[in-house]
Amino acid sequence: MAQQQEGIRPPALIHRGLLALIIVLYEWRRIVFLAILLLLIIQIAQSVTNDFKIPDSTLTDIRSKYGDKAVDRVKTWQKLIDSNQGKSEHEKLELVNAFINELQFVDDMTHWGKSDYWATPIETLASSGGDCEDFSIAKYFTLRVLNVPEEHLRLTYVKSLTLNQAHMVLTYTNPPGTVPLVLDNLIHAIQPATQRTDLMPVYSFNAEGLWLAKQRGIGQFLGAPERINLWQELLHRMQSLNGK
């Protein structure tokens, strides 16, 4: 039998040594990866909270078109967002619903000279009014900037049985499958959908999708919201206002 050469380790020992080294390196890589991931999450969370700022150029445009009071309204909106990030979601719902409902109701033809126009929150606030769609959209985007998760919020088309016409509200559902809360400009108090017997849900949507609405749960998923042209036009105008 050939003698083992000095300085050469048996294969089994080599394999065990390499395995131990690989495990150590893997653990270190895992620790470093988790540390980097945690740092990124913190940075993203901070940017979501702190990144919202109305550009000075936008305020200048608002002043020239609507006057100083319009700028004050928009700045008050900015202050509401900045000073209430730490509130609970339900507190945010109450604050935003009450703030937006202080604006005047004005139909699209009177306000914008169009039969149907979805205004950005800036346009609604600067002009000090809008219709049910504008109110709901302003509430939706304000709550999103206040870090209320997308999946909790839906812009919901309903039929107002009292008015016998189409109407839009914002609904909030958390946890999933529970009865949504309704944020409305017709009835200012936030109520569960089961108490709003004056409303018949039709469909709902947000940035993630489009659903056939129903009183309880999330409804039947219909696909991406791109089919709603006014929604896409609104998002495009908001990006333009942000200089994107």
| Biggest beta-sheet profile | 7 strands, antiparallel
Number of domains: 2
Q: What is Rg?
A: 26 Å
Number of helices: 8
Uncertain regions spanning at least 5 consecutive residues: 1-9, 30-50, 221-227
Helix content: 40-55%
Order the strands across the largest sheet as they lie in space. 6-5-4-3-7-8-9
Question: Which short descriptors sum up this protein?
Answer:
alpha+beta; disordered N terminus; 244 residues; globular; single chain; C8orf32 fold
Summarize the structure.
48% of the residues lie in helices and 16% in strands.
Summarize the helices and strands and which ones pair or pack.
Elements: H1 11-50, H2 56-66, H3 68-83, H4 89-101, E1 104-105, H5 108-112, H6 121-126, E2 129-130, H7 132-145, E3 153-160, E4 165-172, E5 181-183, E6 191-192, E7 199-205, E8 210-212, E9 220-223, H8 229-241
Describe the fold and architecture.
By secondary structure, this protein is α+β, with helices and mostly antiparallel strands. It folds into two domains: 11-51; 54-241, C8orf32 fold, CATH 3.10.620. Helices cover 48% and strands 16% of the residues. It contains eight helices and nine strands. The strands form two sheets. The chain has a seven-stranded antiparallel beta sheet, covered by helices on one side. Strands 1-2 form a two-stranded parallel sheet. It is globular and about 45 Å long. The model is unreliable at 1-9, 30-50 and 221-227 (pLDDT under 50).
